[in-house]
From TrEMBL:
Family listed: Belongs to the ABC transporter superfamily.
Molecular function per GO: ABC-type transporter activity; ATP binding; ATP hydrolysis activity
Subcellular location: Cell inner membrane
Protein name: ABC transporter ATP-binding protein
PANTHER family reported for this sequence: ABC TRANSPORTER ATP-BINDING PROTEIN, MALTODEXTRIN IMPORT ATP-BINDING PROTEIN MSMX
Limits of the ABC transporter domain: 4-234
Membrane topology designation: Peripheral membrane protein
Lineage: superkingdom: Bacteria
Length: 357
């Protein structure tokens, strides 16, 4: 039995439909990242689970029980917001204590609960500080501590690292998985940052157009995206694409920029299909074989160097090479590029769905 189950969930505001028929489950202790762009309904989904808003249709079950008629404070759900939402007239300790006091805990349990979670999050030295005296990192940890204080079964995190600086965001990506697993809660974590999603998730649920278009492990999301849209959401630089047709005369292949690019024979059944060929920039290899191209620009990016390439037929694409590579060409040079199978994908041109070959 799943710790959290969302079944045929729908939410509308008048004639505007946020989502309809949404389904998702999460096991005890699992970290599920809800990933998607602005306006896809990620925060609304968390508010529905928390009980702050009511669904138009469908059910939300926690530990097998429908919680539709249960008040937010009795659902066993903790939530941390991207803007911290700390009470300005309370110090950090009092902020953290609010869910414990709301649940009717006596003061000895409140004090013990605050001390335990503050130690876990390394903010025990600022418990007497007001929110205005805290750094953004300390505010973020205080908000997380408040969400964890009552030992919730379900922990909802609404893009909690969005308003902290880049250094802290990087550090928390490393530290958060350990903290969240120590809590024992089932976690739904909302973010628009694909690196954050990849670093934190046991599974990623990609929300787009009112549906979860793919729910899978970070590896599967990246290496086997269900749609072209999903493929474009993950990766920096983004996936290269080109419209082409699968041909089988003289071997299964596509033609890119006037050059044949071989495909696995398993794609033979798609002969004549109009497709979008996709290849990750890090799966582009510069060598003596493959598609002819000119190097338009060379951009060093720390451990990677990105090349902008253009085929004589006008197709532009990117290659991402290790900066330590010995064969990084200069701008203006002529090269040939081949594509590793692991980073190559074919998507139906009409539907955008990935073809499994």
């Amino acid at each position: 039995m799943s710790q959290l189950a969302i079944k045929s969930l729908a939410k509308t505001y008048g004639s505007f439909k946020v989502f309809d028929g949404l389904n998702l489950s999460a096991e005890a202790g699992e970290i599920v990242v809800i990933f998607g762009g602005s306006g896809t309904g990620k925060t609304i989904l968390l508010r529905l689970i928390a009980g702050v808003e009511e669904p138009t249709a469908g059910a939300i079950e926690i530990a097998g029980h429908d919680v539709s008629d249960i008040a937010p404070e009795h659902r066993g759900v903790g939530m941390a917001f991207q803007n911290f939402a700390l009470f300005p007239h309370m110090n950090a300790s009092e902020n953290i204590a609010t869910p414990l006091r709301a649940a009717g805990a006596d003061e000895s349990k409140v004090a013990a609960g605050v001390a335990k979670v503050a130690k876990l999050l390394k903010i025990d030295h600022v418990l007497n500080h007001s929110p205005r005296e805290l750094s953004n990192g300390q505010k973020q940890r205080t908000a997380l501590a408040r969400a964890l204080a009552a030992s919730p079964k379900i922990l909802l995190l609404d893009d909690p690292l969005r308003n902290v600086d880049a250094k802290l965001r990087f550090e928390m990506r490393l530290e958060l998985p350990r903290l969240l697993r120590q809590s024992g809660a089932t976690v739904l974590y909302v973010t628009q940052d694909y690196k954050e999603a990849m670093a934190l998730a046991d599974r990623i649920a990609v929300l787009a157009n009112g549906q979860f278009v793919q729910t899978a492990s970070p590896e599967d999301i990246y290496m086997r995206p269900a749609t072209l849209g999903v493929a474009r959401l993950f990766g920096d630089p983004s996936i290269n694409t080109a419209e082409t047709v699968i041909e089988t005369q003289g071997g299964t292949h596509v033609v890119l920029g006037g050059t044949r690019v071989p495909l696995a024979d398993s794609y033979r059944g798609f002969a004549g299909r109009e497709v979008i060929f996709g290849v990750r920039p890090e799966s582009v290899t510069i060598g003596s074989e493959g598609v002819e191209a000119e190097v338009i620009a060379v951009t060093p990016l720390n451990e990677r160097t990105v090349l902008l390439l253009q085929n004589p037929n006008g197709w532009e694409f990117l290659a991402s090479l290790p900066s330590t590579a010995s064969n990084i060409p200069e701008a203006g040079s002529k090269v040939r590029a081949s594509f590793a199978a692991a980073g190559t994908h074919l998507f139906d041109r009409q539907t955008g769905e990935r073809l499994d070959g």
